[in-house]
Structures are given as structure tokens and as C-alpha cells.
Design goal:
The protein starts with a helix and ends in a 6-residue tail after the last helix. A hairpin with a 3-residue loop joins strand 1 (293-294) and strand 2. It has one domain (5-310): ADP-ribosylglycohydrolase fold (Orthogonal Bundle). It is globular and about 50 Å long. The protein has 14 helices and 2 strands; from the N terminus they run αααααααααααααββα. With 316 residues, the chain is mainly alpha-helical. Strands 1-2 form a two-stranded antiparallel ribbon.
Length: 316
Amino acid sequence: MKFQKVAILDRARGALLGTAVADALGAGYEFKPPLAKDIPVVFKGGVFELGEWTDDTAMMICIAKAITKSDLSKGLDIVAKEFYNWFLSKPRDIGIQTRAILHPLSDRPSAAQMLEVSMEFLAEHERAAGNGSLMRTAVVALPFLSNPLVLGEVADQVSALTHQDLTCREACVIWSKAIRHAILFENFDGIQLAINELPAFRQGFWNELFDEAEASDEPSQFANNGWVIHAIQAAYKAITMTATNSPDHLVLGIEAAVRVGHDTDTVAAIAGGLLGARWGYSAIPEEWLNIVHGWPGLQAKDLVELADDITEPIWE
């Protein structure tokens, strides 16, 4: 199959910008109850500035910056250092689990050191399956468009730096592979294909979870969406219930994800990454792109350049 550069870059940009705009849109509704359908979803200020993205996008940018400096399939030391440098910047928002992993580390930690702390956290906490690695995973697909096997391995290990729990790691593998598939083939079939590539004893687990989401009435039913399982179910339901087979699906899906309540920025970021990968940067409203910004002093145009820089050139 021949891939066109313009189309691939549009959808790769969409994965990053879809995450960022959805994150920033959801930030104004975080920790609030579900939003009624007759109330419009708009950018709001609060803890964050109007249109400012949160730690979801900031950590994704850390991974993207690491990709510009190294091959993640050969090691994650640069990712660990980028995460830690972001932590030292004293971000306004950081997940409890991520903070617990990064806080005890010293300057310029290695991936091995971060993994060790992450493993200790998992051993000591019953609730170590937060959504904090899934929220940032969209970018991992971009340098591995031609190699889904390596993509899965890297997505797993990038998650493990802070979220060692098996469900967290598998969620990142599934979503990263789905984003890759959407960029290449313009559909959402990558979710099921990724599940089919998991060990046989795990396929039933994930099929049941996505079937449950499909059968639900509303994504807000998955109210414990700080948990990776409810987060991915809520994002998936927001995507499937708004499907239109046209680019307006991106806006409808992101708005539906924001309406779920509770961890709105993260559910929206998860949904936005996959919707952006499917429909592309060109489907994102200009007024959203004009307002979105955040750490480390970047705007939409900077994320476009970053996406272009790290996307594997698989076109002819």
C-alpha cells in the first residue's frame, strides 16, 4: 500500500494536537459531575489558563522531545530524564502516582532507576492502575509506523516507567497500536487488532471490557475514570457513540468525552489522540488551535513541527 506524505502527516499531527486540544478543553471541567447534553462545551479557565493543556499533554511532549534525541527501541533513559526535568519545573498538575515515582529520584535518573521505583510502588499499593500513562501514549506511535511489534514493546515500557500494572501497560499498547492503525488506514479497527495480538489469556479480559463499553448507554457510566480501565472505556464509548463517518466526529467525540465528568481532561485526551489520528489535524477547529498552549511555552504550531519531526517517513 502506498502512503501519501500529506495525509500521513495530517493524521500524525492530529494524534498530538487531538490530545492537546481535548486535554485543554477538558481541563475546565475536571473533578466536576457529568455535563448535561444541552450545556455547550467551551474552554474555561481555572487552575489552568484558558486553552492551556495539563500534565497529560506535557508528559506526551516529554516523550516527543525524547524521540527527537534517541531511538526509544534502544532505551528509555532520555524519556526518564525528560519526565524528571518536567517534574523539576514544578507543574501545576501532576498525578499522585506519577509524583510518587518521580519525587524520590535524583537528578538525571536512568530508566532503570525509574522502573525500580515504579515496581516498588506497584508492590506497595493496591491501587496502582491509574490512567497516567495511557493519557500520554499517543505520541509513541509516530516513530514506529512501519513496525507495530516494536511499537507495542516501547509503549509497554514507556508506561512501565511510572505505571507498571499490567492493565496500564496493555492499555497503552492497545491504544498506541490503534493510533498507528488510524494514521495509516483511517479507521478504528486497530483496537481489536491490537487485542488479538495480546497473549490469548488476556484477549478475553479486554474484549469483555470493550464489549461492556459498547453496550453502555453513556460514557459517564464509567465514573471511576481516574482508573485506567474506566478511562479507556469512557473514551472508547465517547468515540463510538458519536461516530458520523465524517471529520465532524472529532469534535463530537471530544465533547462527549469532556461531558463524562470527573477526570475530564484525561478521558478527553485519550479520546482526542485516537480521534485526531483518524480524522487528522485538518479536522480540528481553527478556534481550538488558536487558543491551545502550554508547557514548555508551546502553541499548536510547535506541536505541528514536533509531529512532523518525529513521524517515521513511510511515504513514497
